[in-house]
C-alpha cells in the first residue's frame, strides 16, 4: 500500500498536512487521526496538501467534511492543495469545491494562511 502523511506546523495555529499516495478506506483513518490531532493542538488554519496524492475516495471526503465542521465551530478554516484534475473533479462533482478553497500549489495556499480575517484582533 502506497501512502504517506507528513504534518508541518507553520505557526501556533496553522498546519499543513501533506498526503502522498492513495487516501482511501484503509488509509483515511490515519489521515483522520492526524487531522483531529492538529485541531486538538489548536490548529485553526489547516491546509491539506493533495499534491502527491494519486487517489481519494468517499472516506477521504468524509474526513475532510468532519474536519471542516470542527474547524468552523472554532472559527477555523480548512483549505486544500490539489492540481490533479481527476481529484479536483471529485470535489466539483460532489459540490465540495464550494465548501473548500482549493489552491493549485502549496505555496499559494500557505501564502493565504493568516489572511482570511477569521482571527480576531489580539
Keywords:
122 residues; alpha/beta; Transcription Regulator spoIIAA; five-stranded mixed beta sheet; 5 strands; 32% strand; globular
3D architecture notes:
By secondary structure, this protein is of the alpha/beta class. Helix content is 38%, strand content 32%. Strand 1 and strand 2 (14-23) form a beta hairpin. It is globular. Residues 117-122 have low confidence and may be disordered.
Topology of helices and strands:
Elements: E1 3-11, E2 14-23, H1 28-40, E3 45-56, H2 58-73, E4 77-81, H3 85-94, E5 101-103, H4 106-112
Parallel strand pairs: 2-3, 3-4, 4-5
Antiparallel strand pairs: 1-2
Helix pairs in contact: 1-2
| SS class | alpha/beta
Order of helices and strands: EEHEHEHEH
The assigned CATH architecture is 2-Layer Sandwich
Poorly predicted runs are: 117-122
Question: What's the CATH topology name?
Answer: Transcription Regulator spoIIAA
User: How would you state the average pLDDT, rounded?
Assistant: 92
The counted number of beta strands is 5
CATH superfamily: STAS domain
Tally of helical segments: 4
Task: Name the overall outline.
Answer: globular
The description of the largest β-sheet is: 5 strands, mixed
Name the CATH class: Alpha Beta
Distance between the termini: 45 Å
**Helicity, in percent?**
25-40%
Radius of gyration: 13 Å
Strand order of the largest sheet: 1-2-3-4-5
Q: What amount of the residues lies in strands?
A: 25-35%
Number of domains: 1
